[in-house]
Known about the structure:
The complex is a heterodimer.
Chain A: H1 2-23, E1 38-44, H2 49-62, E2 66-73, H3 75-83, E3 89-92, H4 98-104, E4 106-120, E5 128-129, H5 131-139, E6 156-160, H6 165-173, E7 185-187, H7 190-199, E8 203-208, E9 217-218, E10 220-221, H8 228-233, E11 239-247, H9 252-262, H10 264-272, E12 276-277
Parallel strand pairs in A: 1-2, 1-3, 5-10, 6-7, 6-8
Antiparallel strand pairs in A: 3-11, 4-8, 4-9, 4-11, 4-12
Helix pairs in contact in A: 9-10
Chain B: H1 2-40, H2 43-48, E1 51-52, E2 57-58, H3 61-92, H4 96-108, H5 113-122, H6 124-132, H7 140-164, H8 168-176, H9 181-210, H10 213-218, H11 236-243, H12 251-283
Antiparallel strand pairs in B: 1-2
Amino acid sequence: MKFVFNTTKHLAWLMACCFILVSSSPADGINTFTGEKGTLRISGGTAHIPVMKIAAQNVMGAHPDIQITIAGGGSGAGIKQVGEGLVQIGNSGRKASDAEIQKYGLSLYKWAIDGVGTVVHPENPVKALTSEQLQDIFAGRIDNWKALGGPDRAITVYTRDASSGTRSVFWKKALAKGAISPKAQFVASNGAMKTAVAKNPYAIGYMSVGYIDPSVAPISLDGVVPDLETVKSGKYKVSRGLYSNTKGPVTGLAEKFINYLLSPEGQKIVAKKGFVPVH
Amino acid sequence: MLENDRIPKLCLQIAAWGCAALTFGVLAFMAWLSIPVLKASNTVQILTQPWLPNQGQFGIGPMILGSLYISVLSLIIAGPVSFGGAIFIRITRPGIAGKIFQHLVEAMTAVPTVVYGFIGVFLIVPFIRETFLQGSGMCILSASIMLALVIAPTMILIFSQSISNVPREYTIAAEAMGATPAQTFFMIILPYAWKGILTGLILGFGRAVGDTLIALMISGNAIAFPGHILDSARTLTAHIALVTAADFDSMEFKTLFVCALTLYLLTCLGVFSARVIGKRQRSS
Lengths: 279, 284
């Protein structure tokens, strides 16, 4: 039984790899957009937005006939909206589930690897936690910073809504699918998480490593600091691919945009924004 | 000529009936989609259970309470302030100062709520957190204060309108009989304008219940039953905004229709009571 399960898992991996191979055809750079016009609508994962924005600006700057709109909403929204044809590209910070791929006939294109790091306010003296402590904090079993060597103030736990890819990866790999306290407060995007944690000295939250900047402080988990290097080397385990999904095989403007993300130029943007390129 | 009149009249009639049908259509649509959910998990459960979608519990009670707490508290804050504002405009400073204030208030009604939400995150939230030294500052109190700012302008304008509806002869007569301004206000203006003021309160309540962004950005959106004004809470509107991304076929998504139905009925209740009161005022 276990063997069968493994095979399907491997098959899924193989399929994902095929998709990535298909998408990395050699057409490169911004010039491939010459002669294109129209609107490209993108929505979904909020971790993707910084890279998407720069890529879209580059394309629109060079080709004023092309309009690219980028919305957030979370990975679940991205998958749903692309599946229903509301957008041409739906981003997700997790791999779409087999059920989702089947239901909507999705094609997956992975163009970056990203870690999900735990963050606190820069003034917080607590800078390192073990997995166990982290799970206790999120479950509400540790509810005061004093227990961890910090100030005598209640811990505010920030989390994301259930459709967030960032949440599902963090929950699986950092919290080991442990409980999240009902007292945890919800924010709607990676950006909102950064604002919430940066403005609250007693907060703890988690976000895409690409979003971590000096306004928040990363927590080293079991001795590993989440940053570009540790995610790249695989030492930091809480990581995931950043996917762009299309309904059916990708065509037209969407295809050129995804190819651009996978081109050396696009991958440079990926690296510059704090994510690990796939090429 | 009469022949020509018929076509535009018909068009307008179709438009009017279309709008009315759409409103009822939305209600029917939500009711129809809510019924399977209410049947599958009996109605009491939906109100009392916590929201734990991973464990198959889809209670929306905490959100209904969150909506009610936040909107009632914002009404408690905004009510007296708006009342004072309206008196300022119509009675104590009816001249230039009142006019300027009135224009300011009119401008305030046009400010998008997201702006208030944004300001709230940076000003009110840290202030509440450091004042009470408890929680994150993202709580019912912070959201209510910001929401009060959103609903106050509408209420001030309605209040001042209903105060100005008091016939001049009444106030002049009262003054002629030697009543002090305070007496005129409490004995003549207040009894006459009272129903208009109630209408303003109800419309303010409707606006507070319906607002999404303030609560989404400031109240913290925790799913626990709120028990204290410094607790974080999630409103029905914020809940819908946060859960819409869930799968269409999932139970989570289906319970959103119950949320929407509850919201619809809450606002309807507000509007209808405003109508009934308004009607009584006109006939009296």
